[in-house]
Amino acid sequence: MRSPGRPVPSRAIERSFWRLIAGGATTEDAAAVVGVSMPVASRWFRHAGGMPPINLAEPSGRYLSFVEREEIALLVAQSHGVREIARQVGRDPSTISRELRRNAATRASQRGYRAGVAQWKAQQAAKRPKAAKLAMHPQLRAYVEQRLSGAVRDAHGRPVPGPNVSWAGRRQGRRRDRRWGSAWSPEQISHRLRVEFPDDKSMRVSHETIYQSLYVQSRGALRRELTACLRTGRALRVPRARSKGRGKNFVTDQVRISQRPGEVSDRAVPGHWEGDLIIGLDKSAIGTLVERTSRYTMLLHLPRMEGHGIVAPVKNGPPLAGHGALAVNTAIAGQFAALPDQLRRSLTWDQGAELAHHVKLTIATGLQVYFCDPHSPWQRGTNENTVSATPVLPTCPAGAWRSSPQSPRPSTPGRKRHSNGALPQKPLPVSYPRSNKPVLHRPPEPKQYTSIRYTQRLAEAGAVGSVGSRGDSYDNAMAESTIGQIKAELIYRRGPWRTLEQLEFALFEYLDWWNHRRLHGEIGLVPPAEKEAAHYAALAEATA
User: Fold this and answer.
1) Does position 176 have pLDDT exceeding 50, yes or no?
2) Distance (Å) of CA 35 to CA 16, 38, 56, 81, 343
3) pTM of the prediction?
């Protein structure tokens, strides 16, 4: 057995280190607690890929501990016999005899017993190295590497080289440089193996094995550079407790969305708002505020600050792009200043740093601010739907704008979420072309049945309005069906029109064809106008 060289920290110290890491402590703090240097602790974390390489449970009393070995070394130095040492340590004499024979130091042909050397030899003998499955199976390793790297082939089967991703070894590269757009995830690879190789049981590997082969250097199965192809792009696994403690300092338990009143979810009381930022080119931004009950939308003007693009940015200084905490607070306070107190009840925002001064905003406007959970955009479904349906503004060229980092990922293209976060049952096959006018309109549905002019018009005609419950259309199913058919046959097929007059003319022409020239099978393949004239003629003859 080779010489241990420099003293190695005991397994107990390493176990204590990984317990602190699992509890959410940083590498620096854990190193200071267990008493090892920062380079040693950093090397432990990197070589293990952020994963504990040993069992964190305390070992059973079956094996000698380092404390017992130190006591044995002292008794040996005092020339005590094996049975006397066993009696004082509380072990069997055969255990002591075997310990002195196996783990004694033999350096420079001098046999002696030292606790540090004995502990190191015991740890080396206890290792049970096992080759990784991906390292022993070339075909399986090639399959996993090819799909992890997102290899793309042209029509002739020739591989198309991807971007040259620079790998720093510890931190992920820039998002634009990652290849996870075409790469497979480890879970997808694991499930796909069962489909492509149903009869070959050797072509099986779990997604956790793939992750460990990427993160743990000692396994030597997969190239560490392939971590740049993962969806997260991280080269080391982050402990779960550490990631949970990464919340923003300004988000306390009192302002989390779980503390928001229940009346906000009911949408029965107006005055509760949802907000977000839309980030454009060159760090331009515009804010959106959407009222949950009426869907009334207001925009926040966030102009550039003086010196943007000229003065070099200062660390921890104000963002010159115009969407820092102070600028957003000022813009929100200016918008709510003209509103009555009944419409300034609460504001729900994501955990973006632009609302770090929310306490000052609450004091200035009386608006209670609540923050969503991290990566939970469905908790602001009203604002997300409004932003996704907004026409592209002139300040944000088409394809260049996006929502803030808390916006939903493009995992469901073409499908917008309901306000409660649920996805619709079926995506629409077509959609009406968006207008180029930079205007936001609130939808008329929540108020169309209660408008004063509508009520007066019903009274003049001697009609009584029938208002059904929200979300139900069976009470006016004929009108809904007719409007839907007009959209499908006219709006989606023959549009778009440049002016309102063109749309009205097309609609009148369609209705004239519908009533006077279209043959309806339900009424005997005749136009509705002809059927109606025949009906009234028959009534006149019956009464004559």
Assistant:
1) no
2) 10, 9, 18, 35, 57
3) 0.46
